[in-house]
Inverse folding.
């Protein structure tokens, strides 16, 4: 960025007069500080401030050094961190190094220079018990801490000074990779506790792990001041065993000030006597503002009828059998005002828009009056997830799901099943076809060099979309930033901790007509930053993708999975045309059988100058090694390249080694995994992927309303 700021001393008056441009140094300090706030702190301190005297002063302004964010500064290395801490360590009050997996553990030693730290995030960093003890012993003002607890962690190695610091910590985020209480027993003043359980059931050697805590780890956590309890479990029985130990103390005495209780658990997580006592105690003694429970704890119980809520801002009933009748009566209080609710997750809640679930089939039409009550009561919703369910609208005029959702003018993120966006009349008709379009079956190949799709939005508009309910919905949600349209029966070919899925379920019948025209409607979202499209069966050419590339210039994250027919990638030409316009794209995930990652694809992808992470999952897919190497050489920002294809193990290993040898030195954060998708050792390879990449892009999942907003800074 330094080229934007010419040194004041060498700019003559004549050159200023002759110049027709604007000299940034003539701007006020307030404007310059606002501009500089978009520059990474490492660049400000180590580069920009050396350009002139004025910038030297501004770059050290408290507004720029108070909070230092390194969590996605992939170019930072140990030496830069050392110099940064030496120059402004005493001025830093909040330091976020989350996900800096590439930095050696010795880097943490330099954090001790930040004597005034109040907030510190080291999630994803390599920190031993001894290093943690040494560091925390010097941070007497610390009130918020995020760390990982890895195998080998020993709480007995924490010094008395370290424990004194922990006793003053009010907020703790702890990610566990081994059964342990971590530092929780030392944090006697906790008000917010976030726990992420990532413990595997088997060791690398294949031994079964136990959820029982090691000797010396049985200290009782202190929850008396707790206001927020959040636990997210990865699949596996060990994670369930360990979280029960954390909950045991809560069941004995529920904190009086508890106002958010959230447990996210995949699969079956059975209720026990202890958890039932905990929930009964919560129903008697607390009023909640946020709630999420495992489905087994809610299904078939009258819990929601007894829980009391204050001004709720987040609810998640993901994968519960909660009916719409219960949702309205027990949660929304019969349709009363619930303007405080900003985030609602009903993903996989198949009966949530029906009056009852006893005799209802999942594919039956929804009751629009329930959705209307929800929309009217929760008019300030900003995040709504209705994915992983069949939400079929009836033929009643004005009661389509899309028409009702268009009233939610404050929505920032939205997740819908594919079958919910189709017009009712179109869903019973045969999907549109044309002589010049690719049929939805195995047939003759389409020449990549020939465009077979409409080239502009006007052509698409003439193809019925302006009158569709989904077109109208997209037009009414102009400030939407995140959109997910996911097939109700879609499942990724790469689930976690299991072999790759070889077969996928067919799409819903109602979804058969959803294709190019609906994708084109998304291009109305001018401020769209993240887009996920999965299992859209009627994609014939992918023409709508081009419109999105042209119109959605803020797009940063794009995930496409199983579009069109499965025999070949019918949208490849349109995708390549789209990518040429995605100058802000940072993350790209593609999941499609028979995907050919060849020279033409990577040449188009090279236009994405901001791209940082690429993930391709393709059963029977192929790649061209020299094209991948050329792409990595031309796209200097790429630090993650994950490809799970149909190539042989030898081809994959050779390419992975070549990329690492060629680019690791200049890209310290580089993470490369190239591996056969159907190989039996895939799960072992996946466990070594940094959690940041695994959770944010490599594994497919719906992320809308996954957690309460602003859960952690």
């Amino acid at each position: 960025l330094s080229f934007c700021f010419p040194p004041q001393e060498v700019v003559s008056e004549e050159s200023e007069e002759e110049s027709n441009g604007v000299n940034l140094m003539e701007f006020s300090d307030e404007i310059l500080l606002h501009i500089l706030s978009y520059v990474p702190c490492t660049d400000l301190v180590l580069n920009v401030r050396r350009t002139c005297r004025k910038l030297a002063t501004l770059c050290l302004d408290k507004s720029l050094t108070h909070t230092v964010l390194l969590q996605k500064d992939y170019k930072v290395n140990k030496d830069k961190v050392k110099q940064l801490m030496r120059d402004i360590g005493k001025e830093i009050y909040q330091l976020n190094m989350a996900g800096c997996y590439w930095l050696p553990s010795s880097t943490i030693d330099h954090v001790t220079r930040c004597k005034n730290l109040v907030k510190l995030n080291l999630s994803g960093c390599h920190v031993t018990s001894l290093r943690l003890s040494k560091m925390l012993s010097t941070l007497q003002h610390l009130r918020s801490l995020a760390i990982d607890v890895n195998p080998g962690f020993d709480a007995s190695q924490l010094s008395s000074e370290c424990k004194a610091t922990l006793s003053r910590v009010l907020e703790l985020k702890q990610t566990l990779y081994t059964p342990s209480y971590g530092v929780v027993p030392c944090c006697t003043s906790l008000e917010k506790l976030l726990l992420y359980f990532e413990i595997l059931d088997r060791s690398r050697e294949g031994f079964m792990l136990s959820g029982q805590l090691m000797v010396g780890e049985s200290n009782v956590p202190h929850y008396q001041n707790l206001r927020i309890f959040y636990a997210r479990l990865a699949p596996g029985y060990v994670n369930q065993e360990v979280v029960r130990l954390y909950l045991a103390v809560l069941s004995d005495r529920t904190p009086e000030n508890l106002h958010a209780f959230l447990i996210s658990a995949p699969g079956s997580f059975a209720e026990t006597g202890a958890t039932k006592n905990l929930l009964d105690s919560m129903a008697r003694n607390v009023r909640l503002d946020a709630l999420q429970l495992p489905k087994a704890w809610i299904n078939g119980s009258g819990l929601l009828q007894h829980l009391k809520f204050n001004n709720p801002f987040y609810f998640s009933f993901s994968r519960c059998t909660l009916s719409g009748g219960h949702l309205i009566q027990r949660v929304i209080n019969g349709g009363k005002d619930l303007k405080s609710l900003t985030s609602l997750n009903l993903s996989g809640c198949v009966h949530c828009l029906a009056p009852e679930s006893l005799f209802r089939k999942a594919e039956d039409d929804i009751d629009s009056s329930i959705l209307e009550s929800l929309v009217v009561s929760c008019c300030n919703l900003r995040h709504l997830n209705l994915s992983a369910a069949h939400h079929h609208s009836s033929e009643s005029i004005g009661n389509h799901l899309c028409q009702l959702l268009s009233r939610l003018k404050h929505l920032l993120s939205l997740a819908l099943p594919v079958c919910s966006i189709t017009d009712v009349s179109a869903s019973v008709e045969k999907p549109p076809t044309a002589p010049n379009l690719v049929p939805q079956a195995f047939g003759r190949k389409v020449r990549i060099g020939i465009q077979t799709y409409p080239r502009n939005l006007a052509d698409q508009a003439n193809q019925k979309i302006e009158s569709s309910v989904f077109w109208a919905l997209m037009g009414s949600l102009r400030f939407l930033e995140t959109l997910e349209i996911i097939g109700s029966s879609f499942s990724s070919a790469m689930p976690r901790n299991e072999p790759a899925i070889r077969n996928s379920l067919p799409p819903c019948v109602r979804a058969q007509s959803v294709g190019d025209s609906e994708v084109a409607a998304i291009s109305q979202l001018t401020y769209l930053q993240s887009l996920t499209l999965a299992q859209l069966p009627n994609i014939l050419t992918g023409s709508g993708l081009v419109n999105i590339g042209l119109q959605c210039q803020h797009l940063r994250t794009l995930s496409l999975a199983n579009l069109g027919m499965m025999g070949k990638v019918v949208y490849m030409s349109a995708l390549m045309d789209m990518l040429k316009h995605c100058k802000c794209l940072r993350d790209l995930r593609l999941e499609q059988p028979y995907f050919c990652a060849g020279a033409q694809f990577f040449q188009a992808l090279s236009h994405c100058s901001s791209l940082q992470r690429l993930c391709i999952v393709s059963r029977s897919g192929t790649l061209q090694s020299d094209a991948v190497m050329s792409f990595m050489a031309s796209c200097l920002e790429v630090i993650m390249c994950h490809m799970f294809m149909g190539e042989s193990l030898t081809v994959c290993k050779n390419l992975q080694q070549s990329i690492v040898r060629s680019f690791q030195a200049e890209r310290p954060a580089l993470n490369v995994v190239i591996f056969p998708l159907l190989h039996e050792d895939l799960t072992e390879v996946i466990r070594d992927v940094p959690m940041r990449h695994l959770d944010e892009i490599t594994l497919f999942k719906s992320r809308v309303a996954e957690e309460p907003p602003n859960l952690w800074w």
Summary: The chain has a mean pLDDT of 88. DSSP finds 26 helices and 22 strands in the chain.
